[in-house]
Structure of Signal recognition particle protein:
Amino acid sequence: GLADRLQETFKKLRGHGKLTEADVNEAMREVRMALLEADVNFKVVKEFVAKVKERAIGQDVLETLTPAQVVIKIVNEELTALMGGTQSRIMIASKPPTVIMLVGLQGAGKTTSAGKLGLAMKKQGKRPLLVAADIYRPAAIKQLQVLGEQLNIPVFAMPEGTDVVTITEKAMEQANSHINDIVIIDTAGRLHINEELMQELKSIKQHVKPHEILLVVDAMTGQDAVNVAESFNADLGLDGVILTKLDGDARGGAALSVKAVTGCPIKFVGMGEKLEALEPFYPDRMASRILGMGDMLSLIEKAQSTFDADETKKMEKKFRKDEFTLDDFLAQMQQVRKLGSLDQILGMIPGMGNIKKKLGDVDLDLNGKEIKHIEAIIYSMTPKERRDVNIINGSRRKRIAVGSGTKVQEVNKLIKQFSEAKKMMKKMQGMTKGKGKQGLGG
Ligand code: GDP
Ligand code: MG
């Protein structure tokens, strides 16, 4: 991820008091490249980089953060702002029904998103009605009907050949008489934007006056998605965007540019073909994802409030001198557990994915029960053994297993975990600055 690249860039710059222009320029080269690689609009990248530069140069590097973290924090905040800052919701009409019209090119995911949105609304206690207004392909009507049946949501459809205005008008009548408080209109797409399509959508808009016109676009199409959004917005006026197939696009370039280029916020993202796979769009989470750093900043904050600063300093020293023992391991683990599950924590640490891969079969998924076993095993060791795992030979392992009521394999696994953790933490030391200044680059 971008965060890893920034960490790399700043490796040699630890301990600076202020960020210099040269530091920042170096980092911005990485940011610019990463964004262009992610298929973000060139103009957006240019403006973005300028903005971050302006904020970053001359920034104090705080006691608790490395220069890389300072820049990452600014990049993160600006990325979030670029995507609209806060979550944009669907406006629920004060007088029901709320009418949501889905528009977009063929294959973008309109019909699927109609079903997903219906399900999400239903889960909120609403009574949605799905409207089949894609009149050109009988299969399209059938597709929505199948979804409706699956979800137990009513679908309004009329015989082939009925014009869209009649369909939507009748649908509104049914919604009113059946007390449906949400009406979701699934419209026809085309392979490309054309006048005929726009006219049809405009006529629906004029007649039913939807509260929300949402453009459904495929994230995988990258910059094309942004161009499509620009055209639809110019011709039809959009209230928001549903960005689909984000599960297939790790780069997320479209997500970054859409709001900046069109001014339309992304309201939902499609994260898979399953009908549950629709999520509200959170700019801050997307920014973290693009940075590839999970939720590192909140982890840093959390860790700082949870860990005793002196204790952490002591541990750091032990790592450096290679005096870290199983007793420390246990104490650390008990402290770390206060932060959440280990899996969660690992997800928040940048670069952890790679380290996890390297560990291969070492199981890092610690749950409460496993901690209890680890405790039992460590308590069954002699103080000497806890200080130096190298002396724990086969017969000692057997004795420890019996004493702790576990199996030899578990003892083996723990010792392996401990050794790996030691290696891993040494590595991580190079990434997180921690507290004491003498620990930097040392
Ligand atoms: P429409 O022509 O705009 O109505 O598009 P459809 O709803 O028929 O979807 C086209 C294809 O995209 C279908 O195969 C869907 O299953 C798939 N699809 C839709 N949304 C998503 C998504 O968020 N993720 C993935 N992986 N596939 C999706
Ligand atoms: Mg469709």
Remarks:
- The beta strands are 98-103, 128-133, 155-156, 182-187, 212-218, 240-244, 266-270, 278-280.
- The radius of gyration is 28 Å.
- The longest helix spans residues 408-429.
